[in-house]
Design goal:
Two copies of one chain form a homodimer. Chain A has helices spanning about 50-55, 65-70, 75-80, 85-90, 95-105, 125-135, 145-160, 205-215, 235-245, 260, 295, 360, and strands spanning about 115-120, 140-145, 165-170, 185-190, 215-225, 225-235, 265-270, 280-290, 300-305, 320-325, 330-335, 340-355, 365-370, 380-395, 400-405, 415-420, 430-435. The first copy, chain A, is of the alpha+beta class. Among the domains of chain A are: about 85-195, Rossmann fold (3-Layer(aba) Sandwich), CATH 3.40.50.150; about 230-305 and about 320-435, Distorted Sandwich (Hnrnp arginine n-methyltransferase1), CATH 2.70.160.11. The two termini of chain A are about 30 Å apart. The relative contact order of chain A is 0.17.
Chain lengths: ~450, ~450
């Protein structure tokens, strides 16, 4: 079992084709990631056996995160939000994304999709389900928690003459014990466009993990089946200058003091000049989704006081160690490409459709979708993480640190981040905290 | 006491200056609005005496709505959302809105603001508090539930040298028993830019009502002190055609069947051609905010099955009467200006700063802000309510019906609407339901 692939080890299925992006895999041991286990239960996780995972303990396997999502008024409001087709529109009008899905479905190895059963997790208006049905799937079950989306999906699927192949189910997947005509561990394929802002925003990785564990047959395929999170050093002078000027002239008042709060909410924006990339990109974390299980979505991490924002009040002793559940804790080490000021990091991600490694077996490349700043632009754009102060770096200088990503403390579908950046032995490290709202995509 | 001014009666302080908009005041008796009372308690409301209202029953006065807002994870997420200064930016960059506020503060009658105490309800980044302080207020207490907004407001106010006049308080106003240096019923002025999408979106009218009841001194001034909701008949051909074309070409599939779901979520957009206004505007409801009390924010309304969307399943007997708490239940009667298809209604609103009627007393006009389609455009834009089918109308034809506005069933900060439109005796009335998300502004 590949386990908790948060930048700590190589994956069980290495993609052998040359990637679009450099693959600085982060292999370094990382003591703060104590071990991969259920967030609210000790003694499980890495040591858990495969058989136990695939067994009948479905009812308690996702207590850690999915239940936090479900046991909340927020969850009802989250699904309500998707009632409005306009909210789906930016995704469906993202031609880079839909082209990747169409290419991925068309690239299915013989027998992998033709005549197979497919579960579409968070189907929205049913676009992916229809693409899968048209690409040869025998039967698609499409599930979504939004009543309005499901209502629209049924009309759309009927209008496209695909009602005989696609069954749309309204419900929160974690709460569904039965799906029409299907048994647990019965689907050949689980597919989902679950990826959100900063990849993890929206919290749907937990739902995908549940779907895989409960509904995918042994040896089944997850689409996409590999995602990775990337960062590069960022020069962000123009945008910050523009923000400062904009905030300095509001109804005759200078409100530029808002900037310290502005940067705590990373901007979703696009890199406009290649020179804004101050370093080569580095992969922060990779997830082999075929092996993803609910107990791997969050990992326990020891944290001291040093990752807190310097300006925040310390409510507990600074050196006291605490444990917290995080998505990933990612050490990084960048080398500056030139003399410049480092403003922070630009965050992006990549998804691969390898069909369980079968494409490489045929000598083909996996289908790839990336939000890389220099690739075709997508509706996800990039996430700009600006530090509270800039750092002057010379060419070939090393900048190291850590980025921790975790569910939002108020709304677990948000992503909160803690950044620590070190440069030069004498200086104090820069630390800051951030929140990416899940509403952004 | 002016009571529940939801289109049922004239107001206690009529504005005598010529309004920008026609003032078709809706005086008709409206049997479905049974009476104005607390939403969850019988026997109060219209018959309640002034003394009782201003008395010491603060703790239970807003049980109906404010407590529904507060007793929810949604509330924490709502305030979290305002941590991000970017969310405030569209409001602060709305020059029509900020100009109205500056003009309103500058227009204060002698002694009404100079040297006075002001409570800013939902202060955000403190813009209005600073404008009030610069306009002469002796002391401003600015309250907001967003920790991030309050943090930024304090920095901004300090940078502008106004910390001696403005005190920023972090908290949910309904939960605050004390404000620094102030006593209940002690403020000379309560001001708030509480207005949201479709006026009522965001649910802040309930918070304003609480603030007025608990903190405003007898005879104090509310800014703005009069708001009204307006509608006109809408020709919306181009936008619907554009939506249909856009949805008919998604990744090679025709998804235009989504349109029936699309129109349930009224578009925030601008009227681009005057001819889209198919009728003169009509005022649907007016609120005299000086008289607003928590028990008036929602009123009980008898509803039968006929206001439900025709396509929705009837879970209860169609003729069974139910009671529901609504913001306003607004009968309307429009006269078509020409031969055309009626697509629905365009909704907009107006706010007046009358300084408690003092401006008229001085022979001056109240300061006015409007989202009227033919006035200067604002970040609120207009709300387009499209019907499930269009109606052909001839010039001078009458179209009548009712628009009911109420808090969202999932998130009470949303606004849900029920529309009934009648035209011609023989035809079935058109009924439809809508939801405006509070996230829109």
């Amino acid at each position: 079992m590949a386990g908790c692939l948060t930048g700590r080890r190589s994956t069980s299925r290495q993609v052998s084709t040359p990637p679009l992006l450099p693959r600085h895999s982060v292999e370094a041991a990382h003591p703060q990631l104590r071990r991969c286990r259920r967030a609210q239960e000790a003694g499980t996780g890495e040591d858990e056996e495969e058989g136990e995972e695939e067994g009948e303990d479905d009812d308690d396997d996702d207590i850690s995160f999915a239940s936090r999502l479900a046991a909340s008024d927020l969850n009802a409001a989250y699904f309500r939000r998707w009632d409005d087709p306009a909210v789906h529109q930016s995704m469906m009008q993202d031609r880079v994304l839909t082209a990747a899905w169409r290419e991925a479905l068309a690239a299915a190895p013989p027998g992998a999709l033709e005549g197979r059963t497919v579960l579409d997790v968070g189907c929205g208006l049913g676009l992916l389900s229809m693409l899968a049905a048209k690409a040869g799937a025998a039967r698609v079950v499409a599930v979504d928690g939004s009543e309005g989306a499901v209502d629209a999906a049924r009309r759309i699927i009927k209008a496209n003459g695909l009602s005989d192949k696609i069954t749309v189910v309204h419900g929160v997947l974690e709460e569904l014990d039965e799906l029409p005509g299907m048994s647990p561990s019965g689907f050949d394929v689980v597919m989902s466009n679950w990826m959100g802002p900063a990849l993890l925003g929206g919290g749907m990785m937990a739902t995908l993990a549940h779907a895989i564990k409960k509904w995918l047959r042994p040896g089944g395929v997850v689409l996409p089946d590999r995602v990775s999170l990337w960062a590069a050093g960022l020069e962000d002078r123009d945008a910050l200058q523009e923000a400062k000027e904009s905030w300095s002239r509001v109804a005759g008042l200078d409100m530029s003091a808002a900037l310290s709060q502005v940067i705590k909410h990373p901007r979703r924006d696009v890199i406009t000049r290649k020179a804004q990339l101050l370093t080569a990109p580095q992969r922060l974390a990779v997830w082999d989704l075929t092996e993803l299980r609910p107990e791997h979505v969050l990992v326990m991490r020891r944290s001291g006081g040093r990752d807190r924002n310097e300006e925040e009040e310390e409510e507990e002793g600074e050196e006291e160690e605490q444990e917290e559940a995080v998505y990933a804790s990612c050490p990084f080490r960048f080398t500056s490409l030139r003399d410049e000021r480092l403003f922070g990091l630009v965050l992006f991600w990549e998804a691969l459709w390898t069909w369980g490694g079968a494409l490489e077996g045929e000598g083909k490349s996996p289908v790839r979708f990336t939000t890389h700043p220099l690739a075709s632009s997508t509706h996800y754009q990039q996430i700009m993480i600006d530090m509270p102060r800039t750092v002057r770096v010379a060419a070939d200088d090393e900048v190291s640190g850590e980025l921790v990503l975790k569910p939002g403390s108020t709304d677990p579908r948000d992503v909160e981040m803690q950044l620590r950046v070190e440069h030069g032995g004498a200086q104090q490290p820069i630390t800051a905290s951030y929140r990416v709202a899940h509403l952004a995509v």
